[in-house]
Specification:
Elements: E1 2-6, H1 13-23, E2 30-39, E3 42-48, H2 51-62, E4 70-72, H3 78-91, E5 97-99, H4 115-126, E6 132-133, H5 137-146, H6 155-165, E7 170-173, E8 182-191, E9 194-203, H7 213-226, H8 231-247
Parallel strand pairs: 1-2, 1-4, 4-5, 5-6
Antiparallel strand pairs: 2-3, 7-8, 8-9
Helix pairs in contact: 1-7, 2-3, 3-4, 5-6, 7-8
Length: about 270
């Protein structure tokens, strides 16, 4: 089950989550937090769903079938964040919950007018109940700076600090926003009260079609967890699959986009 915003062009958000899940062979159920007007050039408008409708969507799903995993994307409003927090508190420890702390679209533009407030809410009411949180380096830096921690550049150190700062179970730090020739994703989690770090490294691919990469990454991870893979195995599979998807997206074209969507389902170029 994915909880997040809608992207009318299908490059990110709920639509990308569905396509990512299908690529892993899972059935994807949804609860929409916001209707957006966006494309690869940016976000033009965000209209959050009311918290009452969001709660009804979630209840409609879980009363029919309990999901094997939950992925959480954009929240849209503080009221919706409260609904999501209560939902995952009740699920805590029962099924995997993957949180993608997205507040800005990769193509540009805020996805909520309450970003600073929601940052605090994430840390206190959502991250502690997540199985794994999946920030990119930009998002991680934003959270660190909000907490008064600046000038930390080592990705492993960032992942470990966030793991403890957020009191969460695991952090999967995505390395795509680094300037290195290789992209390194880092997983920090606990084993017998000690922090354990795993990482994957792939060559950087020059590709213009990266719209929705964070949504897809988190949805792949949730899909593999829902299929029963342990977290570290799911992390490794996700890093491998996102690399394959980006590799298949380099020559993909959709309309006049200069920053297009990923070719998740390997459509013909």
């Amino acid at each position: 089950m994915t909880i997040g915003g809608s992207d009318p062009c299908g490059g990110a958000g709920i639509q990308a989550d569905i396509r990512a899940g299908i690529s892993c062979g899972v059935h994807v159920m949804t609860a929409i937090t916001a209707i957006t007007a966006q494309n690869s050039h940016g976000v033009m408008a965000v209209n959050p769903i009311t918290s009452e409708i969001l709660e009804q969507q979630i209840n409609a799903v879980v009363n029919e079938v309990m999901p094997d995993a939950v992925k959480i994307g954009m929240l849209g409003s503080l009221e919706n964040a409260g609904v999501v927090s209560e939902f995952i508190r009740n699920l805590f420890g029962e099924i995997p919950v993957v949180v993608d702390p997205v507040m800005k679209a990769s193509s540009g533009g805020n996805l909520s007018e309450e970003n600073e407030i929601i940052i605090d809410f994430y840390g206190q009411n959502i991250f502690p109940f997540a199985t794994v949180v999946t920030p990119n380096l930009k998002e991680a830096t934003q959270f660190l700076e909000t907490s008064g921690l600046k000038n930390i550049t080592n990705p492993i150190e960032i992942a470990i600090i966030l793991l403890r700062l957020w009191n969460t179970n695991a952090v999967a730090l995505k390395g795509g926003h680094s300037e290195n020739e290789e992209v390194t994703d880092i997983l920090a989690d606990y084993f017998d009260s000690s922090v354990v770090v795993a990482k994957t490294t792939h060559p950087r691919i020059e590709c213009k079609n990266l719209h929705g990469t964070g949504c897809v990454y988190a949805s792949l991870l949730a899909s593999f967890l829902g299929l029963g893979f342990p977290l570290q195995d799911a992390f490794m599979k996700t890093s491998k699959k996102i690399f394959e998807i980006i590799s298949a997206s380099c020559n993909y074209s959709l309309g006049n986009s200069a920053y297009g969507p990923l070719n998740i389902n390997n459509y013909r170029v």
